[in-house]
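Pasting as-is:
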Amino acid sequence: MISGQLSPSLHPSVQNMRPKYLLHYLLSVKSLVNRHAWSRTPVAETSWALLRDCYHGDMCILHTPQHIAVAALYLALNSYGVELPVGEKEWWQVLCEDVTKADINAVISDLLRLYDMEAKCI
């Protein structure tokens, strides 16, 4: 991975921005979703694309890797209307105890702002 090779010059938040969080979260969520619903929707692919897009701005410095991964998965699931079983806690709180709905919204807002900025450049 390029970030691993450049790690001495990168901010510590960027160094920790590894795909391991999203991979773990995807595997956990996949086990909760109907197999056919999961295979019909590109939730995993969309989550990975959203995560990659976060590298194009300052998001990986502003937010923790765990919060970005949860937000990417949250946005992907909501985009395709995939619902998860309801429990005592929200699914994202089970995956990452310190994330709040406000944290998720902040990451998504920053990501949408990045897309808006890109659209204005075209």
